[in-house]
Amino acid sequence: MTHTRTGRLRREIGSALPERPFAVRFWDGTELPATSGNGRAPTFSVRSPQAIAHVLRAPGQLGLGRAYVSGLLEPDDLDGVVRLLDAWKPPPLDAATRARLALAAVSATGLTRPPPAPATELRLRGRRHTRARDRRAVRHHYDVSNDFFALFLDASMTYSCAIFSRGATTLEEAQEAKLELVCQKLGLREGERVLDVGCGWGSFATHAATRHGARVVGITMSEPQASLARRRAAEAGVGERVEIRVMDYRDLSDGPFDAIASIGMVEHVGEEQIDVYARRLAALLGPGGRLLNHGIARLRPGDGKAGPFSDRYVFPDGLPTHLSRSQAALERAGFVTEHVEGFAADYAETLGHWIRRLDEHADEAVRLAGTERTRVWRLYLRAARNGFENGFTSIYQTLCRRA
């Protein structure tokens, strides 16, 4: 009886998708084979009828993401899945085909109600990029566990693009190179007052204080990050030179600063707030003050925004803007651009290190953050790397001076 149920579903999927660079194995042991892929086609194991129910409830990326995060849909090759999603374009399905698929899926599952969304899914409410909503979004991503991030980051806990293209061979060397490069571009001098926007676990603040004698104010909206950043600065002997605050950049008013570093933070700002962001940073700098804006940017104007999987599970409300849009905001705010440099290949290599380290510590990751979070991060890091490799995104350091 079970075979009869899935048999109808297999026939309808096969008819709707005659060219399939993937295989599907169902919970009853039956399989729909791949029709292409040259032996590299990934296999999706549908472990339960509830996986189908997730896809019926939210067709497309969100339903597939829910089935994957909950462990009901298991790919045998995550890297292959990322390549598949990037290259394969499914054919359009007319209303009659969609109806046949839905009826076959209902018949195969025997379910009368859809399963709940995974516990780690976040659906934000209210107007985008209010202070309260931004705070909730940031904490969803970063307040997983400091120890969880330590499993795959380097010893400095730097959660942004490392720089390998200057000769570094290890992740630690490449992150040190990035931190020093930012300091050099800003031309930091002894005693200067520096703002670190989105300071994370304090790696840049501590580096600028220990290597260049700067007095640094770092801000983050994550209390666990701030607590560890303060401790690390104290352990490095620069606790009196580094102040870490839990606050929104829009609420900072005690300028002027001589220089500002914004490393991996602008992606959280959103196009709705990019002009506000630029004006606030300009207001915090004195005349001639320097800004190093380091952030991810989308490359092709026609590419869509991040999908619902990223928005619900990874970076809620996070959206890299195009470099031209960020530059326009900075120029309107009174900045003069002095240098722009891209590091897409460096970020792809950085993500490769993070992927390997997280995979090596997968069991500990599950213990610290749970199975769902671990599954999200293992897929997200690979998808991010793919974006830098295929030209969807890049990352730029933009050095500006306030006029």
In words, what does this structure look like?
The protein has 16 helices and eleven strands. With 403 residues, the chain is of the alpha/beta class. It has two domains: 2-109, no CATH class; 131-402, Rossmann fold, CATH 3.40.50.150. The model has no long low-confidence stretch (mean pLDDT 92).
Q: Sketch the topology as an H/E string, one letter per element.
A: HEEEHHEHHHHHEHEHEEHEHHEHHHE
**Total helix count?**
16
Largest sheet composition? 7 strands, mixed
CATH topology assignment of the largest domain: Rossmann fold
CATH 2nd-level architecture of the largest domain: 3-Layer(aba) Sandwich
Rg: 23 Å
CATH top level of the largest domain is Alpha Beta
Strand arrangement, major sheet? 7-6-5-8-9-11-10
Q: Which bin fits the share of residues in helices?
A: 40-55%
Class of secondary structure makeup: alpha/beta
Keywords summarizing the entry:
403 residues; alpha/beta; Rossmann fold; 7-stranded mixed beta sheet; 4-stranded mixed beta sheet; elongated
